[in-house]
Amino acid sequence: MRCNFEHHYLMRKRCCFLLLTCQLFYSGYTLLRDPHHNKGLAFTDKERGAHYLRGLLPPTVVSQELQVKKMMHIIRQYQVPLQKYMAMMDLQESNEKLFYKLLIDNVEEMLPIVYTPTVGEACQKYGSIFGRPQGLYISLKEKGCIHEVLRNWPEKNIEVIVVTDGERILGLGDLGCQGMGIPVGKLALYTALGGVRPSACLPVTIDVGTNNENLLNDEYYIGLRQRRATGQEYAELLHEFMSAVKQTYGEKVLIQFEDFANHNAFDLLAKYSTTHLVFNDDIQGTASVVLAGLVASLKVVGGTLADHTFLFLGAGEAGTGIAELIALEISKQTNMPVEETRKKVWLVDSKGLIVSSRRESLQHFKKPWAHEHEPVKTLLDAVNDIKPTVLIGTSGVGRTFTKEVIEAMASFNEKPIILSLSNPTSQSECTAEEAYTWSQGRAIFASGSPFAPLEYEGKTFVPGQANNAYIFPGLGLGLIMSGAIRVHDDMLLAASEALAAQVTQENFDKGLIYPPFKNIRRISAEIAAKVAAKAYELGLATRLPMPKDLVKHAESCMYSPAYKTFR
Ligand SMILES: NC(=O)C1=CN([C@@H]2O[C@H](COP(=O)(O)OP(=O)(O)OC[C@H]3O[C@@H](n4cnc5c(N)ncnc54)[C@H](OP(=O)(O)O)[C@@H]3O)[C@@H](O)[C@H]2O)C=CC1
Ligand SMILES: CC(=O)C(=O)O
Ligand SMILES: [Mg+2]
């Protein structure tokens, strides 16, 4: 479809006029239906009088706290997590401040609803539960006019974009256009966990089709009904998008690539990391959070990172991204070249252990991990041969850490470190219960999606959540507040260090290697401060001069969900 520029110009003029008239008569019924300003029953009598709300609300006036309490009561009555998700999305669309207040005040309870695992189910069923559209859909139909499409978005001062093409949604595969739930969910966390203003956040889904036959045959599917565009057609659409974003929002807008398939993810990151403020959360955010957990766990297992041996199940974005950051950190600590430190890390993919005899047929991101070793087919054999101290699941395939695998880990490690990172819960390589039971309570365990605390032989274990949600909100805030123009690996290391430093003895005593999410805003401020400091140190910051107290500055930048008083 071609864009008619003249028509678009006239439409924009009309919109500006409407906007002005909206501002002039921004009251009454319209005000109640504007999610950014609506306060529902919390409008005071004075506000009701001044803004033509009399009679549009029942007479009682309640506090925001009571509204949160009532909403939580309603949400807790839903038995099905997807119903809770839909209630939350309705709230976000009707009263944004109440949505964020509720999410911030009940973060541990609500994170599994707006994020993994429930967001995965929401994406699978997005077509059926689709109500009001959230985010911006850029499909092949928009080719040639993406710049104009971006201008249709109501907010102009965008600071963060989370973009997916829906091809690898969590461990659920290709969900096409229905992947939109992921950018929407991630950006809700940017605000709730990192304090970035909601109006500065833009969720985007690039729709180039889907290869998911079920969706193509689903009458409720909301995306393009065609197989995925690839090659030049794909690259051109992505390039137009990346250029249009920079043209529209400037070079300081942060673009987070999320849940792209690995055959595009690495290339997109390499291509745009020198021209845009961009990072890939699955490769880099995940690496930073896992490194933090590993550094923290050294306090329990002892030794340095270099004393450990790491084995991954899954050698894609998450696996090789984490592997590289571990190797980089060991290299920094030991002054050994990274080519040497990589030898501490082994990866298994769907064909077995990655070894030198497979080098020729390996994708480029696996080649650095093809060490000298006999071919090994199964994970169990790899565990028995390599004898890792740390086992990390990034395969996207559930229940692949079998009893035999975990028992083997526990047979040569006093405290085996076992991380099942794959999401959602159904794809986790093992459950918390399996990790603790099969290791006789000795495993140090964390998972990508949350597991409830459990008892084993009279002791309560609290499984931690190793999820990039600890990192990207603080990382993003640090980049934004320093006006950074590029993401550098040292910023990921700084974020990791800041997170590891937040784990307390009390957390360790419960078996945690991450601090609880209830303190996440303070943690994000610490991460943001360290990231911003690194941006200034590297000469990549543009907001000068550097504030004296970066943690305080980060806190002062954070969005507050408290209602404002209207005159
Ligand atoms: N906790 C967190 O914060 C995060 C978790 N994740 C999760 O990690 C998982 C993987 O994501 P990502 O790395 O991006 O995906 P990729 O598709 O890039 O990589 C998956 C890897 O797993 C391998 N694999 C698949 N099936 C098997 C199997 N049966 N046995 C051994 N290896 C297998 C693939 O092998 P091959 O290359 O041979 O096909 C590939 O190397 C997802 O479930 C995702 O949700 C991702 C990011 C963050
Ligand atoms: C957490 C995340 O980014 C993923 O599972 O893809
Ligand atoms: Mg992801």
What does this molecule look like?
This protein is α/β, with parallel strands linked by helices and 567 residues long. Helices cover 46% and strands 10% of the residues. The chain has 25 helices and 14 strands. It has helices at residues 5-24, 28-32, 45-50, 64-77, 81-94, 96-105, 107-114, 118-124, 126-129, 146-152, 181-192, 213-216, 231-249, 262-272, 281-301, 317-334, 338-341, 379-386, 403-412, 432-438, 472-482, 489-500, 505-509, 520-537, 550-557, and strands at 136-139, 160-164, 201-207, 254-257, 277-280, 310-313, 345-349, 352-353, 390-393, 417-420, 444-447, 454-456, 459-461, 464-465. The strands form 3 sheets. The protein has a 7-stranded mixed beta sheet with strand order 8-7-6-9-10-11-14. The two termini are 46 Å apart. The structure holds NADPH dihydro-nicotinamide-adenine-dinucleotide phosphate, pyruvic acid and magnesium ion. Pyruvic acid binds at residues 116, 170, 259, 281-282, 423, 448, 467-468.
Tell me briefly what this model is.
The chain is α/β, with parallel strands linked by helices and 567 residues long. It has helices spanning 5-24, 28-32, 45-50, 64-77, 81-94, 96-105, 107-114, 118-124, 126-129, 146-152, 181-192, 213-216, 231-249, 262-272, 281-301, 317-334, 338-341, 379-386, 403-412, 432-438, 472-482, 489-500, 505-509, 520-537, 550-557, and strands spanning 136-139, 160-164, 201-207, 254-257, 277-280, 310-313, 345-349, 352-353, 390-393, 417-420, 444-447, 454-456, 459-461, 464-465. Magnesium ion (MG) is lined by residues 258-259, 281-282.
